[in-house]
Amino acid sequence: MQRLQKVLAAAGVASRRKAEEYIAEGRVTVNGEVITQMGYQVSPHDEILVDGEPIKREEKVYFLLNKPKHTLSAASDDRGRKTVVDCLEDVDARVFPVGRLDYDTTGLLLLTNDGEFANKMMHPSSHLPKTYEVTVEGVITEKMVKMMERGIMLDDGKTLPAEVFVLQQSVKKNRTVLEITIFEGRNRQVRRMMEYFHCEVKSLNRICYGFLDLGNLQRGQYRKLRMYEVRKLMEMADDQASVPEMLRR
Does residue 134 share a domain with residue 120? Predict the structure, then answer.
């Protein structure tokens, strides 16, 4: 469900403020009923008319991008830097990223024009797994792995238990490659987890989101999500039975 004035603005009828004026003037009907209440909630199935003419709703679209390095997770940038939306050069819809990856972080990022979908994906209760491959300068010990698996205390509270695997390690080169799966969406969480152990992140790549992976997509490439994939993500976000047992204790 979305507020009526927001739906009107998204359909290109008018700005949100102007749409509110239309509603107040009694120019908008929903399923044949004149609506003058601000904040009135409508569904995608409601028939909305303005001055007797049906609005044209934007088709909902969903994309999976393999985000390149040095790209902003934003729809636009007033400093002219490249954004993830710029990567979707053949897409006409007004999409935005679902969450964000740091400027220097690469990998799997979803983009959509569906605010309800994006909010569900990012809601703290969803606990959708997100898996990263991270290379750090430093040696991650078994003790450190166990600490991350139990949760560590950062400046914004204790992290949820993570799944951590050491993929490669060289004491001589002072280098460790890890695979880390987290179940929350804190800002820069993996980087801050590494900083907790005084290990500098050399590269960070998100390789999985929910059940999705990058497949054969190269950096900067993207594909459209299939509707069954969208539905499955929504179901995962809703289904607390899919939350790992360690998070339900």
Answer: no
Residues 198 and 137 in one domain: yes
C-alpha to C-alpha distance for 79 and 72, rounded to whole angstroms = 11
Count of structural domains within the chain = 3
pLDDT in tens, 137-182: 999 999 999 999 999 999 999 999 999 999 999 999 999 999 999 9
> How many Å separate Cα 236 from the centre of its chain?
14
- Mark whether 95 and 218 lie in a shared domain: yes
Q: In whole angstroms, how far apart are CA 43 and each of 1, 9, 46, 98, 105? A: 5, 15, 6, 21, 36
Low-confidence ranges of the chain (pLDDT < 50): 241-242, 249
Regarding whether 216 and 121 lie in a shared domain, the answer is yes
How many residues are given for the chain? 249
Distance CA 82, CA 203 (A): 19
Catalytic site includes residue 46:
no
Instruction: Please pick, among 46, 86, 102, 213, the residue that the annotation labels catalytic.
Output: 102
